[in-house]
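Quick review question:
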């Protein structure tokens, strides 16, 4: 079975999504993958699909370019490799959960309790495939940027703040509770969501349901906003004297052969696990700092981003041409050239989209370029500018640099 191309659909191994370059499969993992498991995954994607991967903003991995038979074979290969797939609905934890000494509470323990309660609930098959549950233990990686229907944030050891809908800033806080009550409260919430219909989300819950749940919880305060670790550091200290080093494939995209090369060349460094993180990062967990540094050097030689100030981090691009048949623009070629200009920053990021669907980014960027059949539509800080009437990449690049230059001059002008 395949899912047609549309925003909001949720491709899985069992139900891949039709895209311009064939079927797309998205996978979420509940922990790390050892070198052999990740190699098996990459080889199978190369053999049965296009061998193209993307790490998503949510930290999932998607593989592109399968035929229906290829997708089936891929799913069979992965079942044989015993990969730690998350069940539906996904209970997401931070990528270092369970080995992060900075966690206030053990998010792995709570997430596995919630997952087993859900697995045995009678309403699970009536929940939306998009439904998301986040358990954030308060460690080095914040999950505040992820939208979730149900969110647990550790406050102190054994205590959790429960909120629903939105991201870490916009979610509705319901209250605080002990870990022992978390599973029963989650069950009550999920049952209430299921009663709203198969596509329902937490935002659809009636106010009286929310108020009823609030009365069963202790009052809770919001935490101050947390800094996303992706831009703060690429190096993490773990429990048990281990380390994790981060690397980001440009635009989150990496091909199977590059991934295999990274794994094989890193074997001498005793990488214990590879993990995918929100923010499109790949982590390598190593026993020592020196081994982590050696993996970083290998990643750098393979053109992966290993420094948090690399200008390519401030450019986003979907698959576009030639990978996606819906695209009107060679998105990643253009984004790479524009990123090299250093005009795009964390404050004024770039987003290049092959068509109006804008798969790569949901929030508006500083400059967005949207490919159209005969030109490009530029948008600056959410405001549409005159259309660029060409599909010639050099001409589009010049126009985009001119727009970025004008914006830089305007931002230096004193306010009237
Ligand atoms: S936004 Fe990009 S990847 Fe998505 S359908 Fe359009 S061209 Fe394809």
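Suggested answer, residue by residue:
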């Amino acid at each position: 079975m395949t899912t047609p191309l549309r925003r909001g659909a949720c491709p899985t191994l069992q139900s891949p999504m039709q895209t311009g370059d064939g079927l797309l499969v998205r996978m979420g993992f509940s922990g790390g993958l050892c070198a052999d498991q990740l190699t098996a995954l990459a080889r199978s994607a190369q053999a049965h699909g296009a061998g193209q991967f993307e790490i998503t903003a949510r930290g999932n991995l998607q593989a592109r370019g399968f035929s229906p038979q290829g997708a089936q074979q891929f799913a069979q290969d992965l079942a044989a490799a015993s990969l730690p797939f998350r069940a539906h609905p996904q209970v997401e934890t931070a990528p270092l959960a369970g080995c992060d000494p900075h966690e206030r509470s053990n998010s792995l323990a709570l997430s596995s309790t919630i997952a087993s309660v859900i697995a045995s609930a009678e309403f699970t098959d009536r929940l939306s495939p998009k439904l998301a549950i986040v358990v954030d233990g308060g460690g080095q990686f914040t999950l505040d940027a992820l939208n979730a229907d149900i969110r647990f944030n550790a406050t102190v050891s054994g205590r959790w703040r429960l909120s629903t809908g939105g991201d870490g800033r916009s979610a509705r806080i319901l209250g605080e509770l002990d870990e022992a009550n978390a599973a029963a409260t989650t069950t009550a919430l999920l049952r209430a969501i299921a009663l709203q219909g198969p596509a329902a989300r937490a935002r659809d819950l009636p106010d009286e349901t929310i108020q009823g749940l609030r009365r069963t919880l202790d009052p809770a305060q919001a935490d101050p906003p947390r800094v996303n670790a992706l831009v703060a550091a690429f190096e993490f200290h773990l429990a048990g004297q281990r380390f994790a080093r981060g690397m980001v494939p440009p635009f989150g995209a990496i091909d199977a052969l590059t991934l295999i090369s990274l794994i094989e060349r890193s074997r001498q460094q005793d990488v214990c696990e590879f993990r995918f993180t929100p923010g499109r990062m790949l982590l390598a967990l190593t026993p020592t700092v020196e081994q982590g540094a050696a993996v970083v050097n290998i990643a750098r030689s393979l053109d992966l981003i290993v420094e948090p100030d690399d200008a390519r981090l401030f450019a986003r691009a979907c698959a576009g041409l030639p990978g996606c048949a819906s695209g009107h623009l060679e998105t990643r070629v253009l984004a790479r050239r524009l990123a090299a200009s250093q005009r795009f920053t964390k404050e004024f990021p770039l987003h290049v989209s092959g068509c109006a669907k804008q798969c790569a980014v949901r929030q508006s960027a500083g400059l967005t370029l949207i490919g159209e059949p005969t030109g490009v539509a530029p948008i600056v800080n959410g405001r549409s500018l005159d259309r660029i009437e060409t599909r010639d990449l050099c001409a589009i690049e010049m126009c985009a640099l001119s727009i970025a230059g004008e914006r830089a001059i305007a931002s230096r002008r004193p306010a009237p």
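Why it works: Residues 20, 318-320, 324, 326-327, 353-355, 357-359 surround iron/sulfur cluster (CB under 6 Å). The longest strand covers residues 150-156.
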